[in-house]
Amino acid sequence: MTRFDLHTADTAPEGSRQLLAQTKAAWGFVPTLHATLAESPVALAAYDTLFGLVAKSTLTPVEQQVAYQAVNVFHGCEYCTAGHTFLSRKAGMAEDAVQALREGTPIADPRLQALRAFAEAVVRARGLVGDAAVDAFIAAGFTRANVLEVVTVVATKTISNYTNHLTHTPYEAFMADPSLAWTAPRNRVAAAA
C-alpha cells in the first residue's frame, strides 16, 4: 500500500508551505487532511479555497454543516463525518439533527431535511437531479444561489472524502472522542462478520 506523508511547513513542497502556515494560524493546528493534501499544492489550494468560499455562502453555518454531512455520509467518509460532527455541534446544530445525519434517518426540521435530501440527490445523480428536485428545494425556502452553493459543498467534500479514502488520512487526536467516531455502513458489515 502506498503511504502518504503528513507534511509540515518544513517538509511540504514549496507551494504548500504558506497554506499550511495559514491553516495553522487559523485553526491552531494543521489537520491531518491538510498535511496529506500538502503533497500536491494544487490539491491543498483547491480544498482550502473551496472550504473558505463555502463559509462565505448564503447558507447558514448549520446549513453548511448539513450539506457537508450529507455528502460525507453518502461517500462513507469516516474522517470527515467525525470532523463535521464536531463542527456541526460548534455551529449550534441540534443534537437530534446531528444524529439523524450520521445515522441516515430523517431530520425533524423540514427545511434542514430538504437541504440534506437535495445534497444527497445531487451526489447520487451526479447533478442530474432534474427540474422537480430543484423546484422542491426552492419550494422548501432555498434560493437559486443555494442550489449552486450545494454544488460547491459537493466539490469541497469530494476532494476531502476521496483524498481520505485514497490516502487513509489518520484521525485527529480529538476524534478519539467516542461521540465523534463514526463507522461507515460498509465497515459496520465487515466488523460484524
Automatic annotation (TrEMBL):
Pfam families: CMD. Coiled coil: none annotated. Gene3D superfamilies: AhpD-like. Residues 48-120 form the Carboxymuconolactone decarboxylase-like domain. It comes from the Bacteria. This is Carboxymuconolactone decarboxylase-like domain-containing protein. It comes from Roseomonas fluvialis. The lineage of its organism: Bacteria, Pseudomonadati, Pseudomonadota, Alphaproteobacteria, Acetobacterales.
